[in-house]
Structure formats: structure tokens, C-alpha cells
From TrEMBL:
Residues 22-41 are annotated as: Disordered. The keyword Transmembrane does not apply. It comes from Aquilegia coerulea. The lineage of its organism: Eukaryota, Viridiplantae, Streptophyta, Embryophyta, Tracheophyta. Belongs to the iron/ascorbate-dependent oxidoreductase family. GO terms for molecular function: metal ion binding; oxidoreductase activity. PROSITE patterns: FE2OG_OXY. This is Fe2OG dioxygenase domain-containing protein. Residues 207-307 form the Fe2OG dioxygenase domain. Keywords: Iron, Metal-binding, Oxidoreductase.
Length: 356
């Protein structure tokens, strides 16, 4: 195959690059390194969904709704407990993912996103960063990316048949997590005085949900690379299941990076750009990143819930008034995703494009 060095390294999974334990290759060296130290001084809020979604109206519940609103305004992040997804299922999806990433490369490559001729076949499947230029700095991370919803649009040939329970476990987890996501989006609307379907109706009934399984191999020089570069998510909301033992997620708040600690069996929820737009800036889509370490591999499973690409989304009418003028234009979901992807690859923020 006639490839440049850059392309050749791209075709190698990070897991293979990491195997030799040597210094990371040049095209992984992050521009902003050495990595700024993160602080654990303050911790992102923990929200009890069971309390939030209970049908009785109590002072405790009202307080929790207030806490949700202020968390989304100042952090754009929270740890959801009381979500009702059995711990045993959370453990199972994490261990199943780990098993997949530990399979021989040949087996994993059956689901590869890169076609045999070296071209990218599409978004879904196993792979790493899409490289658009020689200057592109790669993340220290391998991924398996799959559409999980709507079910009839799944690309089953990209769903691993090994490990044995992979498909049914991802199915079960994504069905449950998507119900949790719907409920969170309803209560987000209520928290700012809107009717519960105000945001959800903008997502639409066929809103896609993507699963991105991240695998960060250990790195001999974690200070020189990004697990995932600083970014905001481009969809509506993201539900993230973190590794149970290895920390790595950080959020940028008030000028510093803050570690997102592991809360056993909690789901990390974050606002993504299109929800910031729908909330007319009441909720913030936070900048976050993942770092690696030299000892242990880390995994995470992000579920991106994205408004239907054919829908027009925009600030909810009830959130625009004289004191709070419209901050964003109405835009087509598809246009935003396209613009976001282009900017993401160049390390730029896309949301400013949608500002009035
Ligand atoms: O691995 C993590 O904790 C973060 C992953 C993430 O931000 C993403 O996949 O968008
Ligand atoms: Fe993210």
C-alpha cells in the first residue's frame, strides 16, 4: 500500500502504538502540553434522579430541581444517581467493552471503520481519529462507535459478535439509558419553568443516539498526549458511564481543569451544544477532556443523544423575553452537526456560529 508515514500510523490502533511502551509518536504530541495539572478542589454536583422524578411534590424535590438548574447553568455537568439502571447491568456493559478491546486485533478489525483501501467507510465501527491533514494531532484513544437508536437504523454488521453477550448487553443498556435520558430532558425543561416536552419535542421521535466506546491504553508520557482533546459535545445531551477504577475525565470551570471523580454506578450527564442553544444559554455545554496515565488502561462509554438531523432547533420560546433576549438563531440539526464536525477536527468551538 502506498501510504505516507502519517497515514501508516493512523492505520495502527493506539493500542498497538502503546504496546512498545516507547515515547509517543510525533503525531500524538498535543500542542498545549505539558498537560496542565487538574484540581480536585471542587466536585461536580450529584443529583438524585429518583427524587427528581418522584410523583409527589415535596420541598426536598423542589430543592433537587433547583440544584439541577443551577448545576446545569454553572457546570453543565452532573453525576446522576438513583437512575434505576441495575448496577449489575452497568458492570456488565463495562466488562463486555473491556473484553472487546482485549480481543486480538484481527478480531476487532472485522468491525473496522477503515476500508481495505484505506478510506474511511463511514462513522460507525472500530477505529480512531479521522485524519484530515498532516498537522492533525491524534487522541490517545481507540473507539468503537455505533448508532444504537432508532433501532431500525442500527448497522448490525458493525456490532461485534464477540464477546458473546456484546450485542444483547449494549441493546439492554442503551434502551434503559435512553429512557433515563428522556426523563432527564423532561425535568430539565421543568426546571426552567417550561412544559416537560419543550426540549424533547425538538429532539423528535426519531432522534438518534450514538454509543462511543472509548479505550485509552496506558501511555509512557501521559503529560505529552491527550486521551481526548478539550472539546464540547455537539449533540443534545451526553450520558457517560466512566471506568469503575481509573479516573481520567476532567471539566474546565472558572479557568481551571477539575477532575470528575468516580462515583460508583453513577452516570455522568453533560449538556451538549444543541441543548445550550435550546435553553437559550441557560444551560452550559462545558469544555471537557480525558487524560491518560502510565499504569492502567481506561474505558468509558458515552451515549450522545442528538436532535433529529432533519429538525430545526432553536431557543425555546418560553426562554426568550425582554430580560433574556434570544442568544441563538434557529438552525437545522444537520447543518449544526456538519459545522461542528469540521470545527471539531480543527480544535475550534462551533456554537459561536449559531449566535445571533
Ligand atoms: O472518556 C471520557 O471520560 C470522556 C469521553 C468524552 O468526552 C467523549 O467521548 O465525548
Ligand atoms: Fe465528550
Amino acid at each position: 500500500m502506498n501510504t505516507t508515514n502519517n497515514e501508516a500510523t493512523q492505520l495502527k490502533r493506539v493500542q498497538e502504538v502503546a504496546l512498545n511502551g516507547e515515547e509517543p509518536p510525533l503525531n500524538y504530541l498535543s500542542k498545549d502540553k505539558p498537560t496542565t495539572e487538574a484540581s480536585s478542589s471542587s466536585s461536580i454536583p450529584i443529583i438524585d434522579l429518583h427524587l427528581l422524578l418522584s410523583s409527589t411534590s415535596t420541598k426536598e424535590k423542589e430543592d433537587e430541581i433547583d440544584k439541577l438548574r443551577s448545576s446545569l447553568a454553572s457546570w453543565g455537568f452532573f453525576q446522576a444517581v438513583g437512575h434505576g439502571i441495575p448496577s449489575i447491568l452497568l458492570d456488565k456493559i463495562l466488562s463486555t467493552m473491556k473484553e472487546f478491546f482485549h480481543l486480538p486485533m484481527e478480531e476487532k478489525q472485522k468491525y473496522s471503520r477503515v476500508g481495505e483501501d484505506g478510506t474511511m467507510e463511514g462513522l460507525e465501527g472500530y477505529g480512531n481519529d479521522t485524519v484530515k491533514s498532516e498537522q492533525h494531532i491524534l487522541d490517545w484513544c481507540d473507539r468503537l462507535y455505533l448508532l444504537v437508536k432508532p433501532q431500525e437504523r442500527r448497522t448490525l454488521k458493525m456490532w461485534p459478535e464477540s464477546p458473546k453477550h456484546f450485542r444483547e448487553t449494549l441493546h439492554e443498556y442503551s434502551v434503559k439509558a435512553s429512557l433515563v435520558a428522556d426523563n432527564i430532558i423532561k425535568v430539565m425543561a421543568q426546571s426552567v419553568g417550561l412544559e416537560e416536552n419543550s426540549f424533547l419535542s425538538q429532539f423528535g421521535k426519531s432522534a438518534p443516539m450514538y454509543a462511543r466506546m472509548n479505550y485509552y491504553p496506558p501511555c509512557s508520557r501521559p503529560d505529552l498526549v491527550d486521551g481526548i482533546k478539550p472539546h464540547t459535545d455537539g449533540g443534545g445531551i451526553t450520558i457517560l458511564l466512566q471506568d469503575k477504577e481509573v479516573e481520567g475525565l476532567q471539566v474546565f470551570k472558572d479557568g481551571e481543569w477539575i477532575k470528575v471523580p468516580i462515583v460508583p454506578h453513577a452516570l455522568v450527564v453533560n449538556i451538549a451544544d444543541q441543548m445550550e442553544i435550546m435553553s437559550n444559554g441557560m444551560f452550559m455545554s462545558p469544555m471537557h477532556r480525558a487524560v491518560t496515565n502510565s499504569e492502567k488502561a481506561r474505558i468509558s462509554l458515552a451515549l450522545f443523544y442528538v436532535p433529529d438531523l432533519n429538525n430545526e432547533i432553536g431557543p425555546a420560546v418560553g426562554l426568550i423575553d425582554d430580560t433574556r433576549p434570544r442568544l441563538f438563531r434557529n438552525i437545522k440539526g444537520k447543518d449544526y452537526v456538519e459545522f461542528f464536525t469540521k470545527n471539531f477536527l480543527q480544535g475550534k468551538r462551533a456554537i459561536d456560529w449559531a449566535r445571533v
